[in-house]
Design a protein that fits this description.
259 residues, Rossmann fold, 2 domains, six-stranded mixed β-sheet, four-stranded antiparallel β-sheet, 10 strands
Length: 259
């Protein structure tokens, strides 16, 4: 396996505060990799560093072998990185299909124009139909985004990201604010994504994390506390200590076969 994304000793300081400190990790091609940690662990800062909206104080980041440490978020998007954020960036007054079409047009070079006929935008309508089917939104294609539920908007954000034909998809707290049923549906959506799309998931819902992740990196106080397969992370005493505080979390981190 080869790494799609690599971080080497990445650090981000805000004045005297090191929000992220000496983080080294690798996201393998085709993986479902989760980044977790208690509040204040540095997850959001690291996400923004990976996305390109923040620049590191020191360290190096590679995307598909290319040094992107100082590259913009737009450059990374063209290189195959797509992302969804905690706060929606959808066009609420447009339809579901138009939101996806605008993203699909970036691939054809028409990204800043409003949707035109299929004949003038080859492949866009096919891309829209495919992405809506993959995310379970085909029946909502003509609906205004403002009429969607919270869970459906999260689905649409994934559809928009898929329309850019990404190699790596970053998901930042995608199930935040969802009911248990919505979280389960969203997890099923991620499970159904094409194998060639690598996923790095920053998530607070540990049920979702342990359902989806093939590898987990745990941040604590800006540093990597643990990194490995779900079973090894679940049984790591340092991770259990970092997460102590709620009965549900303690129960989730109990070693397999105990109660």
């Amino acid at each position: 396996m080869t790494a799609v994304l690599e971080c080497a000793a990445v650090t981000k300081r805000f004045g005297s505060l090191a929000a992220v400190s000496d983080v080294t990790l690798a996201v393998e091609r085709g993986a479902r990799h989760a980044l977790i940690g208690p509040n204040g662990a540095g997850k959001s800062t690291l996400f923004n560093l990976l996305a390109g909206t923040l620049k590191p104080t020191s360290g190096r980041m590679l995307l598909d072998g290319h040094d992107v440490t100082r590259r913009s978020d737009a450059w990374r998007s063209r290189a195959g990185l797509a992302k969804t954020f905690q706060h929606s960036s959808l066009f609420l007054s447009l339809s579901v299909s138009d939101n996806v079409a605008i993203a699909a047009q970036r691939v054809t070079g028409d990204g800043v124009r409003m949707r035109r006929s299929a004949k003038k935008c080859p492949g866009v309508d096919d891309s829209v139909a495919r992405c809506l089917e993959q995310t379970g939104l085909s029946a909502r294609a003509s609906s205004r985004v403002s009429d969607l539920s919270h869970g459906e908007r999260r689905q649409l954000e994934v559809a928009v990201a898929l329309a850019t034909e990404p190699t790596l998809l970053l998901l930042d707290e995608p199930t935040a604010g969802m009911s248990a049923a919505e979280s389960g549906s969203f997890a099923a959506l991620v499970e159904s994504l094409p194998a060639e799309v690598t996923v790095l998931l920053i998530e607070h819902d540990l049920d979702v994390v342990f359902r989806l992740a093939s590898r987990i990196t745990v941040l604590h106080l800006g540093r990597v506390l643990a990194d490995g397969d779900p079973a090894s992370v679940r049984s790591d005493e340092r991770v259990q200590q970092a997460y102590l505080g709620t009965a549900a979390t303690e129960e989730l981190f109990l070693p397999a076969g105990t109660s």
